[in-house]
Amino acid sequence: MTYDAVVVGSGPNGLAAAIRLAQADLSVLVLEAHSHIGGGTRTVELTKPGYLHDVCSAVMPFAEHSAAFRAMPLREHGLEWLYSDSEVAHPLDGGGARFIYHDIARTADALGTDAADYSSLFGRLAPDADDIFSYAMGPMLRLPHHPWKLARFGLAALMSADRFASRYDEPGSQALFAGVAAHAVQPFSQATSASVGLAMMVAAHAYRWPLPRGGATSVTTSMASYFASLGGTIETDRRIRTASDFPATRLKLLSSTPTALASIFGLAEPRWNYGPGAFKIDWALDGPIPWKNTEVGGASTVHVGGSYEEIAAAEKTVHHGGHPDKPYVLVTQPTNVDATRAPSGKHVAWGYCHVPNGSDVDMVDGIETQIERFAPGFRDQIIAKHVKPPGWYTDYNDTYVGGDIGAGAFTPRQMFGRPKLSPNPYSTPIDGVFLCGASTAPGAGVHGMAGWNAAAAALKSLGIEPTPRTGR
Fold first, then answer.
1. Cα–Cα distance for residue pair 26/29, rounded to 1 Å
2. Whole-angstrom Cα distance, residue 451 to residue 7?
3. Which string of b and e fits 216-250 if b means at least 16 CB within 10 Å?
4. Could you tell me the end-to-end alpha-carbon distance of the chain, in angstroms, rounded to an integer?
5. What string of H, E and C letters represents the secondary structure of the chain?
6. Fewer CB within a 10 Å sphere, N or C end of the chain?
7. For residue 453, is it left (φ>0), alpha (ψ between -120 and 50) or beta?
């Protein structure tokens, strides 16, 4: 059978691309190498029966309000978003903590002398979130529709995390920013290393950081259901190794990396760098994590690492090929808002730290010791655990090279040119072939925008102007 388009990969980007093409009345086939759909956006019983763990993403700051998800009626296909009391908790030594709440004033209340500056900055940026992200969620080489609003955000986002954090005097304020800045997986001295953290804070105040009921799988199953309602087809256990493996089609979109594209089509090896890997642990717990500061238990996302200086040092160590004694640990505890994820009275959580790409060093003790530092008795709650070093992620998903779950380092070059500096970074040297994964703009995260944008580029190559839709 001949299709108008074939999409490789059934994660959020692949499905978003397929949906946009199907919305334009094209016949679309999605090919998935594994026996299941979802990529990293998947929930499985990793430890014990009844304990549902997210393989990768759990909390999704950019999902609910992305242009892609807004154009899909995913609630009608089973997706429900949940919200915790605070978007982020950052425990401190001595039992203190700082929090990012949806409400700016409530967040600023705990920031002491930095409260006025915090309120002023995010009070200006949060109302502009739709206009900021309409640009930031696409190729960088294009004219923004709202240049002045973008400039307000961009001037801060282009800073290093070190420079941005210097605006704050309170150690707690600096630590709070360090936790979100570390999501960029870059040294804090690097230009643009403030960008990811700043964007996530704007999203927290403008939209919140939701998580899907039932786990990450709920996102991709609802997308697959909607895609099927449009007449789309998904085939699993269909790995594409060479160009000849494709069925007859006008368009080929791959949710893959530039290096994988080169291998499949026999192109020259691209200039593409991968970042640090992830070392992750999933826990089945007998009860909630016993944080010293009990309010930390009300957050679905917890940044564990202590002070700004400690987190900056940990990320610098990883960048230089080392393994920090006190790693920065990103923790999620979804069962504080979603009881469907574990048996009655029980809980699940995961935590991961950054390690050098491809590392085989065991970080279990380092991760659990950091959590114990702020939650004494945590180890006593562990019923079972499942450990995922970088090699596990490499085997699980071809795009996670060396455990880099971002599919490419978020350096300044690979932020502005992802994977190339162009108004259409999704195109390739081969007519009709497009990249649509996290290696393309805007990058990693569950939002579907790389696939959504790539599909628009593919449609335009056929002379079809993409039509915006509203799915809710």
1. 10
2. 10
3. bbbbbbbbbebbeebebbbeeebebeeeeebeebb
4. 34
5. CCEEEEEECCCHHHHHHHHHHHHCCCCEEEECCCCCCCCCCCEECCCCCCCCEECCCCCCCCCCCCHHHHCCCHHHHCCCEECCCECEEEECHHHCEEEECCCHHHHHCCCHHHHHHHHHHHHHHHHHHHHHHHHHCCCCCCCCCCHHHHHHHHHHHCCCHHHHHCCCCCHHHHHHHHHHHHHHCCCCCCCCCCHHHHHHHHHHHHCCCCEECCCCHHHHHHHHHHHHHCCCEEECCCCCCCHHHCCCEEEEEECCCHHHHHHHHCCCCCCCCCCCEEEEEEEEECCCCCCCCHHHHHECEEEECCCHHHHHHHHHHHHCCCCCCCCCEEEECHHHCCHHHCCCCCEEEEEEEEECCCCCCCCHHHHHHHHHHHCCCCHHHEEEEEEECHHHHHHHCCCCHHHCCCCCCCCHHHHHCCCCCCCCCCECCCCCEEECCCCCCCCCCCCCHHHHHHHHHHHHHCCCCCCCCCCC
6. N
7. alpha
d(CA 212, CA 399): 23
Q: For the chain, how long is the longest CA-to-CA vector?
A: 66
Instruction: Return the closest-CA partner of residue 161 out of 135, 210, 196.
Output: 196
Check: CB of residue 114 under 8 Å from CB of residue 424. Answer: no
Identify the weakest region by mean pLDDT among 54-68, 147-161, 208-222, 274-288.
Answer: 147-161
As a whole number, mean pLDDT of residues 173-188 equals 97
Strand 347-355 to 329-332 pairing = antiparallel
pLDDT of the residue at 288: 98
Residue (of 167, 203, 213, 166) closest to 183 by Cα position: 203
% pLDDT > 70, the chain: 99
pTM, rounded to two decimals: 0.95
Q: Which amino acid is at 306?
A: G
Residue 56 has pLDDT above 90, yes or no: yes
Q: Grade residue 468 by pLDDT with cuts at 50, 70 and 90.
A: low
Q: Does the pLDDT value for residue 469 go beyond 80?
A: no
Rounded CA separation 157/179 (Å): 16
Neighbours of 123 (CB within 10 A): 13
CA angle 166, 160, 164 (to 5 degrees): 30
- Residue 470: which pLDDT band, with cuts at 50, 70 and 90? low
Is the predicted pLDDT of residue 472 greater than 70, yes or no? Answer: no
